[in-house]
Amino acid sequence: MSSVLVFTEFTNGQLKKGSLELLSAARKSGLKVQALAIGPGAKALVDQLGKEGVDEAFVADGAALDKYNSELFTEIVCGVLSSKKPAVVLASSNSLARDLFPRVAARLGTGVASDCTTLEISSSGEVKARRPMYAGKCTAEVSFESSATKIVLMRPNQLTVTPASAAKTATLEELAVPTKDLATIVKEVVKGTSGKLDLTEANIIVSGGRGMKEPANFKMLEELADVLGATVGASRAVVDAGWVSHTMQVGQTGKTVAPTLYIACGISGAIQHLAGMSGSKVVVAINKDANAPIFQKATYGIVGDALEIVPKLTEEFKKLLQH
Amino acid sequence: MKIYVCIKQVPDTETKIKLKADASGVDFAGVKWVMNPYDEYAVEEGLKQREAGKATNVTVLSVGPKARVSEALRTALAMGADDAIVIDAPEDLDPMATAKALAGAIKAEGGEYKCVMTGKLAIDDNAASVSQMLAEFLAVPHATVVTKLETADTQATVERETEGGSREVIQLRLPAVVAANKGLNMPRYASLPGIMKAKKKTIKELTLDGVGASAADIRVKYKGFALPAEKPAVKMLAGDPAQQAGELAQLLRTEAKVI
Ligand SMILES: Cc1cc2nc3c(=O)[nH]c(=O)nc-3n(C[C@H](O)[C@H](O)[C@H](O)COP(=O)(O)OP(=O)(O)OC[C@H]3O[C@@H](n4cnc5c(N)ncnc54)[C@H](O)[C@@H]3O)c2cc1C
Ligand SMILES: Nc1ncnc2c1ncn2[C@@H]1O[C@H](COP(=O)(O)O)[C@@H](O)[C@H]1O
Known about the structure:
By secondary structure, chain A is of the alpha/beta class. Chain A is built from 8 helices and 18 strands.
């Protein structure tokens, strides 16, 4: 019977939400569900994986796998895929998977589609997936050609998490950690200081543009974001002006985001910016120019001074969320 | 030693995407083509390495319809690249076939090279795949989303960006494929003498066949293109700032149900 293999990820011994989304989609196919987990503590996941309806768990555990190393991970993943031959591989479209799976696909000569936003897997292992192209200016359906294994990287927050109807006891297979002369050595991992979700994973984004007038006013956006548990984004104009870090840029040459709520403050809505945030479910635009193009993409619009409105919004949300 | 830089030509970011009548793809009629923005960082980094005496030659490569993509190569030559190679190919190659072609061309050139620079992602297909695939076909290490690069004779140290502002510092044995992100440098503009000089340069032409790649290497195609659903008309909130803020908070909770 063909299978769906989920590349699962975990922190502090718990499966990440993205992995639960993928496992839900894998179960829905009715195919055998396999899971691969790599990293120190991976072995201990086997019970959790069983509860999630996983039939077979493959784990590579060990201190050597503490940090993501593209060479080691490629070896391990290719080893599993060539011996288990799943019809479909699912992984979250995050920075690790986006670095890893194209290399895996090249080694195995099979297809990979990153950043997919919809997914259906049939009981025969056929895949129907769509992904944004041109940073979201359009979408298209992926068609895999001559691909023994179809690798699908799903954008987080697109699939619903459903509970497994029946817990299983997953079989556990331990994988050897490759020992080889590495041409890639990870020297250091410097954690981001914000502790906030990345823009690409955030459920709510508060974004600021040149209409915020000066860098110091981004503090207002931080405060609003803190109340909402949101991540702060920005237009390219303020990134290029050096107000904020380029990691905060939303748009065609920044990050493509798909939060449930995007609050654009003092952003005009240039086509390159709209491309990157058009996947947002609800958009709020605050701009003093009633003709700003951002209003054409907005669900709710306020014509006014963002510097005045943002602090008031922060107060309102504080009131609302206290109850 | 040589540095290769891979360049994709993409529709300008201003482009309004129109679809073909049968939704089989994007209608490129009237589109203005430019060098993929991330590839500008790749070219700049190649030139900087050469200027720092770490490389002697910067050769730019592009895969695609030769008349069109040669324009992007000319732009790179005008910025200061030494040589250019075009691999003539149909419009719709996927990352796998493209990487095969690029690897084939680099192997055909022969000789040693220090590294291959690419962009972290092409803004048309958003695949972020060619760099890693190319590294695999060249059997060299890779690093993607790179914001800092230092090279010595046989190794490089790179910084790459991951989620939430985190960074990884990685040591790579050279040669390697390095995919540039914004932040790596400030791409220069082509100078007028540069543009004049670039016009006179010959771009070496290769065929897909000649570099050992073909349409049979394609693994991913696209169909059923669609434009994003039209948003319903915006609801504008009236009143003074306090009223607007109050109403918005309520609507987000009770109508949109997002907070
Ligand atoms: C190759 C290329 C790639 C690009 N990629 C991106 C990208 O990825 N992301 C991106 O964002 N841009 C990108 N751009 C830039 C884009 O074209 C715009 O220049 C940019 O998005 C504008 O940023 P902005 O909206 O902050 O500034 P502006 O366009 O200057 O708009 C400022 C807005 O603030 C409003 N405003 C002013 N004061 C106030 C106030 N007190 N209260 C409320 N509103 C106020 C104004 O009415 C105006 O609408 C790219 C451009 C190019 C050429
Ligand atoms: N057709 C092409 N010709 C040359 N280089 C390319 C081509 N397509 C992609 N690349 C390179 O690979 C990078 C990543 O592209 P992609 O994987 O398509 O997102 C680009 O920034 C280019 O440097």
